[in-house]
Amino acid sequence: MSGKKGLVVEMVDFVGAGPGAEDLITVRGMRLLQEADCIIYAGSLVNPELLSYAKEDCVVYNSAVMHLGEVLEVMEHMEAEGKHTVRLHTGDPSLYGAIREQIDALKKKGISCRICPGVSSFCGAAAALEAEYTLPSVSQSVIITRMEGRTPVPEREKLHSLAQHGSTMVLFLSSGMTERVQAELLRGAYTEKTPCAIVYKATWQDEKVIRGVVGQLCKLAKENHITKTALIVVGDVLGDDYELSKLYDKHFTTEFRQGTDSDQSK
Question: Cβ-count burial of 75 within 10 angstroms (0-12 exposed, 13-18 middle, 19+ buried)?
């Protein structure tokens, strides 16, 4: 069975809600919400205003108060009824979305599913900071990670080990552990003067951006009473020194444009 715009309805769609603002969901994600018979959304993180896209008779569940078995039970029930379920995850579901365990369980039940990507909150944080994560001569890599908490991380991915690279780093799920984060970052290539920022609820109405340096990270979080729903961004890309891009350098020849200087070794 197909719905509007050729969207299949008898299945489970995992949809990225975007970083927060209701109009930063993708067009496809919005259409899936509009057509869903059931929406299971991550109520502790997803902007509830997104539920305004749901049709009147759509059944809505808040997964913040549900365990995995209960979520799967709802999906199975809807599938048995020939209904379309949207599992609405914050940001992009591929990052800390816990979707693999749901998808694998659904496949074992013979239930088909798809993933609709979304704008991750780390992209929303960059927008709030007016930052470019990859600056020439500064950093060409972005490490997305988190501080080890109740859920462990692999030994090779301990924060101090990743910090050895000194590249741009974005930490999820870590704003309540800033004292430990600060100590781990300083065990790596970052210094007390390395620029950092805490972005609380990026793109939401109550978004807050706090800038500082790694040596002040814990103090900044405490002073602003931030313990959750925030990203920590670290790296020299938040500073002022960088080189201009070669791509738009008038002396640089590309497939589409001849440079004005024949010496391309510069």
Answer: buried
CA 97 → CA 142, 173, 226, distances in Å?
19, 12, 22
Give the domain-ending residue among 75, 93, 119.
119
133 and 223 in a single domain? The answer is yes
pLDDT at 81: 94
Q: Both tokens of residue 98?
A: 């816990």
pLDDT, residue 7, reads 52
* pTM over the 0.85 mark: yes
CA distance 138 to 140: 7
pLDDT tens profile 107-122: 999 999 999 999 999 9
CA distance 213 to 174: 16
Q: Read off the pLDDT band of 244 (50, 70, 90).
A: confident
Residues 10 and 59 in one domain: yes
Residue 245 inside a domain? The answer is: no
3-state secondary structure 27-85: HHHHHHHHHCCEEEECCCCCCHHHHHHCCCCCEEEEHHHCCHHHHHHHHHHHHHCCCCE
- One domain, residues 186 and 111: no
> Of all helices (H) and strands (E), which one includes residue 104?
helix 100-108
* Residue 169 falls inside a structural domain: yes
Mean pLDDT in residue range 171-189: 97
Asked if residues 238 and 197 have their Cβ atoms less than 8 Å apart, the reply is yes
**Residue-number span of the structural domain to which 225 is assigned:** 122-238
Looking up residue 233, the CATH number of its domain turns out to be 3.30.950.10
